[in-house]
Amino acid sequence: MRLKDKIVLITGSYTGIGRAIARRCVAEGAKVVLNGLREELSEPLLEELGASNAVHHTIDITEADAPEYLVQKAIEAFGKLDAVVNNAAIVASSNMKTTTVPYLERMLAVNTIAPFAIIQAALPYLIKTKGCVVNIGSINSWSGEPNLLAYSISKGALMTMSRNLGDSLFREHGVRVNQINPGWILTEHELINQREQGMPEDWYKKLPDVFAPAKRLFKPEELATAAIYLMADESGPISGQVIEVEQFPMIGRNPPKK
């Protein structure tokens, strides 16, 4: 098992990508600290993973004491911390006209500042275990879609932080930091989001090639595989890197044929 006896804190892990990562961590021998906003969503996952393998703490990660609470939950329950997965995020549309300063500040608070604060709180324990951090970003980190302005800004800042800390923390403390930039992933939230925008129920089955050369979107479980690799010892000294989980290159893509 690739994560045998490792302790992993995963934010935003009651649903979607975070839940897929939590399931895979436990399958690979780890114990996990789960986090989310809705307590009722934690119950089925805790039952599935087993009381000996998972604990949880329901809290908004932007609350002042949330990073310390989450880290201490891991230490109290399992005695150490080997990895942090910063997955919790706001994914919402906005553009230059609709992005207010308070809106941007909230986006940055959840998607960039809270992950930084969690890393800061976890660092003393990660130093002891020579642990690692995996930040879940987005391919929109590179430039972003016109209607994902605030989101793209926040994920771009997260990517810069990942590269910076991936160098400095590894050199000084042996703590690795990497980022995964997912493309379009079919999660519960995305299904709801697209329905709210007026898309038909089966929209994801009829995607144009420009968005999905594979004729489908990624599954959360496929992204979880990348996260497991970066947390496992087999990834060796890899740090300060950004892995794109996408169906096409962001740079140098061949233009679609008309």
Task: Write structural notes for this entry.
It comes from Meishania litoralis. Its EC number is 1.1.1.-. It is an enzyme of class 1 (oxidoreductase). This is SDR family NAD(P)-dependent oxidoreductase. The protein is of the alpha/beta class and 258 residues long. It has 2 domains: 7-183 and 219-245, 3-Layer(aba) Sandwich (Rossmann fold), CATH 3.40.50.720; 186-217, no CATH class. It is 43% helix and 14% strand. It has helices spanning 16-27, 39-49, 66-78, 101-129, 149-173, 188-196, 220-231, and strands at residues 7-10, 31-36, 54-58, 83-86, 132-136, 176-182, 242-245. It has a 7-stranded parallel sheet, sandwiched between helices. The chain starts with 6 loop residues before the first strand and ends in a 13-residue tail after the last strand.
Number of strands: 7
Per DSSP, the total helix count is 7
Spatial strand arrangement across the major sheet: 3-2-1-4-5-6-7
The CATH class of the largest domain is identified as Alpha Beta
Biggest sheet overview: 7 strands, parallel
CATH architecture designation of the largest domain: 3-Layer(aba) Sandwich
- Tell me the series of helices and strands, N- to C-terminal: EHEHEHEHEHEHHE
- Kindly report the average pLDDT value: 94
Structural class: alpha/beta
Overall number of structural domains? 2
Principal-axes geometry comes out as globular
CATH-assigned fold name of the largest domain: Rossmann fold
Strand content: 5-15%
| Helical residue percent band | 40-55%
Looking at CATH, the homologous superfamily of the largest domain is NAD(P)-binding Rossmann-like Domain
Measure the end-to-end span: 47 Å
Keywords: Oxidoreductase
Organism: Meishania litoralis
Protein name: SDR family NAD(P)-dependent oxidoreductase
EC number: 1.1.1.-
